[in-house]
From TrEMBL:
InterPro entries: IMPase, Inositol_monoP_metal-BS, Inositol_monophosphatase-like, Inositol_monophosphatase_CS. Signal peptide: none annotated. Its EC number is 3.1.3.25. It catalyses: a myo-inositol phosphate + H2O = myo-inositol + phosphate. Pfam families: Inositol_P (PF00459). This is Inositol-1-monophosphatase. Belongs to the inositol monophosphatase superfamily.
Amino acid sequence: MLPQQRLELAVSIAREAGERIVAARHSQTFNQQLKHGQELVTDVDVAVDTLISERLDAGLPGEQRLSEELAPDREVMRTADALWVIDPIDGTVNFAHGLYHVAVSIAWVSEGKTRLGVVHAPFLGETFTALCGQGAWCNGKPIHASRTTNLQRCLVGTGFPYRRDSRPPLMRRLLAILEHCQDVRRNGSAALDLCDVACGRLDAYYESVSPWDFAAGVLIAREAGARTGHLYPCPEGIPEDLYGENLLVSTPEIHAELGDLLRAADANELRTY
Ligand code: IPD
Ligand code: CA
Ligand code: CA
């Protein structure tokens, strides 16, 4: 199946998944549990992952998947030639609290490169899509990253891991951004943060996340003209498009400066703050 046809299939599945999420919000009957002691998961996350997996299997039988709830074994990133990467609900905490930054994220990766991505935000009525080498769109209209050149005017999105003990080191980065940029936003969906960079609402995004959180969004941002990359070298054996540690995605003109700022914060080298 051609990438364009795969994208159309992924969009129709993401929209059906979005309807399921909206219906669950209205009925308010879902259960909440903690995964690994601190990560919130609802039975809607699992139901939506099941729906997406069944639809992909029906349309493209036997293709491999990496999905947050049903198939989270990352070894497949090293071994599969081609892979669907799925986050059924990105923004689970928002979903459970009645907030609107919630997305379905589906990407298809082959030979180590993300070829297509869809991020569908059912409560916001926005469907972001991208095809490798062909551009990025929101509800079918082309989107473009901002062209901000001045760090002081940059609005920066980020997020924080569920593990409490991973948070304190990130405070240095946060302080550096608050000191040198316009402000920060923590909207609770990495996929939508990346789409917000893609359409120029945010100028930059940095975070360490799992492959399903960012695989689709990072392609959308890149295809919209943002520069995508990592603060530090990536390990061998995992496609860079699926390596989620120390991501930095921004308008091209500020990428180097922002990278220097965040690395200096990590090394505790900043003189200010
Ligand atoms: C989370 C969101 C959040 C990010 C977390 C992710 P989830 O995904 O993307 O913005 O800060 O690191 O785990 O758990 O809602 O699918
Ligand atoms: Ca997620
Ligand atoms: Ca999720």
